[in-house]
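Quick note —
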Amino acid sequence: MNWVQSLTKAIDYIESHLTDDISIEEISRQSYASSSHFQILFHVVMGLPVGEYIRNRRLSLAAQDLQQGGKIMDVAMRYYMEEVFNAAGADFIFFNGAVNAIYPERQRTPDKGWNEDYEAYWEDYNNSLDWQARRMGRDFAGIALAMTMPPEKITGNELTNPDNDHGWEYRRIAAMMQTHGTVSETELPPRLDIRLRELQLDIENPFVRWAAKRGMMNYIMLRGETKQQLRLATEIGYMELGGAVTVALLPGEFTPGLAWGGGSATAEYAIRQRAFGHPTFSESAGREVLVFGLCNDEIGYVIPDNDYLMFHNPFRDMNYMLLRAWEYDHYQELLSPGPRTGSALTEAFAGLVIHG
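Predicted structure written out below.
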């Protein structure tokens, strides 16, 4: 094989694995050359190191994905977060919260005010999207790496140094880690336990019933015992990682009080001025749980029964006069199956814990 064929084979391999963790050694093996010889040949012919070529090609793909309507979060994870983790030699699983998924799609990343190229947002829309994806990916990856570092080493690492292409929110979190400390890594045994249960929930929300009958919802609807009764079929899950981490797998977006207590699960903050009255997910599990929402299904918002009210008034002064609850500006009920969804899911989760 001559050097042209060798280089062509290597580039073909790179192009077909751009979203994977590519090592120089593996690329060299594809070209049937030693790592040192291949890197010299590549640099001479292509005019740049192989690592820089891979990085540039990934950035080109990221920009192309965004121009074709790709989501900022997807691009941030696929290209920019992975770039940082690969540089750190780390493997990762990333769990993303709802706010970090929704805001970028509304062009509301928390770092715009720090963008040194902010004017580009108005001059070049695609360039702005790529910048947001890059900053988000680097910030999230930096947080993941820094949270288990000794605090004094955060600024000494180019991937976690707050002054190295990171935004103000990352800088704030990094400062908190340096002040209050980080956590140590915990190795878990390779054990995964999952229990799932099918569940039927009554659709009592009149708007959801209307929309579901017209095929506007992605629900599997079932007729109940009477003609007027409609139910949706979904599932709930209980998961343990390594026997130490407990996760509730929910089919919708949940109110935090259902998992850990407080907030709208209490009489003090609930619109109906009474407590939820059911054990939280953590109380049922006997330990604090994580919650993975939108698992396998998307049934809408899950609200404590005591805080469910089909009413929305954006004028807070009027809210106070009418309801004595000036903070009440709910909209979640509009997209929730009904007022008993919260209790149905918490009882089903408790059953999985007890009978598992």
